[in-house]
Design brief:
alpha/beta, Rossmann fold, 2 domains, four-stranded parallel sheet, three-stranded parallel sheet, 8 helices, globular
């Protein structure tokens, strides 16, 4: 039996993430999730706010609270989390965040979803218009730059992943006005329901980070 390790940039448990990855993994795969912020109180988390839009990450804490956290704070705690998953005997590890991260101690062989999602987008959209959903408006400029490439115009809209279907549909309607050829949901906390609401409005192929990454992990573990 294979063991899949998941690092979430927030706290465990995250049953929604575990269930979606388990659905994509080969039958019988054991899934272990650990959070980079495990062991921190709410007050300690609130004490490390983002320093800028580029330092802003979205996550959901234990108990379901949406928070903005510092990317640098998450990076500082990640090597310990990765080490624990390796000690758990994981056959594959995924870092469950679509942000771009610098080299970190213990990250050899770890799958980063940003590389999966951008690779698929480049293959499907060599040129055209990309619609991008991000959790917070202040992330827009940084993430538009991350996705920008020659021949591709990027339009960004903000949608908190915990938003309901009506809010998702309203944001998707605004995004649809830019007539994208492809849409990417740039956060691991977006789920299938959000994808369905967005795709119903924009009516073009829509990439969901967690399932796209899960299918790649399925290949690694099969």
């Amino acid at each position: 039996m294979s063991t899949l390790g998941i690092v979430t940039i927030g706290q465990s448990p995250r049953d929604d993430i575990v269930e979606l990855f388990a659905d994509q993994a080969p039958a019988g795969t054991k899934v272990i999730l650990r959070g980079a912020l495990d062991g921190m109180t709410d007050a300690e988390v609130d004490a490390v706010p983002p320093l800028s839009g580029a330092d802003t990450l979205y996550t959901r804490l234990r108990g379901g609270r949406d928070v903005k956290i510092s990317k640098q704070a998450v990076i500082a705690r990640s090597p310990e989390t990765l080490a624990k998953l390796r000690a758990d005997g994981c056959d594959a590890i995924v870092y469950a965040c679509t942000g771009e991260f610098p080299p970190m101690e213990g990250d050899a062989g770890v799958l980063f979803p940003s590389r999966v999602l951008s690779g698929i987008a480049e293959g499907l959209l060599p040129r055209g218009r990309l619609g991008l959903l991000v959790p917070f408006a202040e992330q827009g400029e940084k993430l538009a730059t991350k996705w920008a490439r020659s021949g591709v115009a990027v339009t960004v809209e903000a949608l908190v992943p915990s938003a309901g279907p009506e809010e998702a549909a309203a944001v998707a309607h605004r995004l649809a006005s830019s007539k994208p050829d492809l849409v990417a949901l740039d956060c691991m906390s977006y789920g299938p329901a959000t994808k369905a609401a967005v795709k119903a409005e924009v009516k073009v192929p829509t990439l969901l980070a967690i399932t796209a990454t899960g299918r790649v992990l399925g290949e690694l573990l099969d």
